[in-house]
Write a structure and sequence with these properties.
Length: about 425
């Protein structure tokens, strides 16, 4: 390691890297084995190493002290350090420190909103929240009310909530740069509350609130108007307060469908509701129940080490696999599934049949990039990306990056490291 920068062995490839996979965004096996015959098979499946200028390149090394939080924008890295009430902006173009802003609190969470170029810095131990101009570091406004929490931030708006009674929640959408209110509404969300298709830094289209009696209200995010409401035919207290813990009710949203999964007196029921109208599409009794996840052409239901794939049109079980903790959509052709081991390992599944296409080992997916743990050299993570033809290439190896604390945005990859400093690399996505 030089100057605190993690070693990137650009001249190395994973043991036995050879012929690349042929399908789109296909992943590579994660662990070389010692038995010769299996090694030869593994080498035939592994993706090839990129060459020339198509390798991972180091962009910057931020503060030497460990980061409590960091977030990428298109042109900057923002960091907050443990015990230091300051936020720093680092330019990705030249790796230089752009500004340092002192806050009235330390921050354990940073969220960047591209639409307003506002950075939110939130404390993890008290209600302090500051909103900064991302270009200058100036604090635009600040809130430290113990009754207010930030639900979402995106699209130049911030959604705040306040608990006004045991079963009532006051929602308030405000302008991200000024804090001025856009709309406010009181809802009962004691059964379920979901900001729909929200991702940090992006605005959702709608909000869904369900009370303990199963009454659902769907609100338009931009103006707070009621899009639809109706009853979901589920009584949450009866499901969740069972003395034996056997009965329950859960709600999940996938696309424009609200799924209510419940078990009542040992009988499971899964019901699909249209979010736009809160009308029932179908109901299946006696089938799989549990946590519902988006699996592309199918929906997945995970419970007690069993993943079931259902037809979203009518709830029919298409296939089941035991020994899996969860499966979810990876791309248009594949599901990414993890087993139930203490250090979960992944595999690619065919969403139509559940057949395992490839066993992956310990992987972390970061957008279009993949971090794959090397099972021989502890602490090494291989970075792999696909070219325009879907062929996966190894573009570098990180020896000090903490894979569980990495984030990606566009062509950039940022990771906390065991040396303390947060590092940023540029990922060569265009390999052909």
């Amino acid at each position: 390691m030089a100057a605190g920068v993690p070693i990137i062995d650009l001249d190395l490839t994973p043991p036995g890297a050879g012929r690349a996979l042929s399908w789109r965004r296909r992943l590579t096996p994660a662990r070389p084995v010692l038995i010769t015959a299996v090694v030869l098979l593994t080498l035939a499946l592994l993706g090839g190493a990129a060459s020339g200028g198509r390798m991972l390149s180091h962009v910057l090394s931020a503060d030497p002290q460990p980061a409590a939080a960091f977030v990428l924008s298109d042109d900057s890295l923002f960091t907050a350090s443990f015990g230091d009430p300051a936020i720093r902006r680092w330019r990705l173009a030249d790796g230089e420190l752009s500004w340092t802003a002192k806050l009235p609190q330390t921050a354990q969470d940073l969220v960047y909103d591209e639409a307003s170029r506002v950075l939110m810095a939130r404390s993890g131990i008290d209600p302090n929240v500051s909103f900064l101009d991302a270009d200058t570091g100036a604090v635009l406004w600040h809130n430290e009310s113990p009754d207010i929490a930030v639900v979402t931030m995106g699209g130049a708006r911030v959604l705040l909530q306040t608990n006004v009674a045991e079963s009532r929640r006051a929602l308030r959408l405000v302008d991200a740069r000024t804090g001025r209110p856009v709309w406010s509404r009181v809802v009962d969300s004691t059964g379920y509350f979901d900001p729909g298709d929200y991702l940090p830094g992006r605005a959702p289209a709608r909000l869904i609130a369900v009370d303990t009696a199963g009454h659902a209200v769907v609100l338009r995010y931009s103006d707070g108007s009621v899009l639809a409401e109706g009853d979901l035919d589920v009584d949450f207290p009866a499901q969740t307060n069972n003395a034996f813990g056997a009965d329950y009710a859960t709600i999940a949203t996938v696309g424009d469908i609200l799924y209510v999964s419940r078990r009542d007196r040992g009988v499971s029921t899964l019901t699909a509701w249209s979010i736009d109208s809160v009308t029932r599409r179908w109901q299946v009794t006696g089938g799989p129940a549990g946590y519902v996840v988006d699996c592309g052409p199918v929906i997945c239901v995970a419970e007690d080490g069993l993943v079931s794939a259902l037809d979203p049109a009518d709830g029919r079980v298409l296939w089941q696999r035991r020994g899996l903790g969860i499966a979810f959509r990876y791309d248009d052709r594949s599901l990414l599934a993890y087993d139930e081991s203490e250090n979960p390992e992944a595999m690619l599944l065919d969403p139509r049949t559940g057949a395992a296409r490839l066993r992956l080992g310990r992987v972390v997916q970061l957008g279009d990039a993949l971090l794959r743990a090397d099972s021989v050299r502890i602490g090494r993570n291989w970075v792999e990306v696909a070219d325009d033809d879907g062929v996966l290439h190894v573009v570098g190896a990180l020896d000090t990056a903490v894979a569980s604390r990495c984030a990606s945005r566009g062509q950039y990859l940022a990771c906390a490291t065991s040396t303390g400093a947060t590092q940023v690399w540029r990922i060569p996505f265009h390999l052909t």
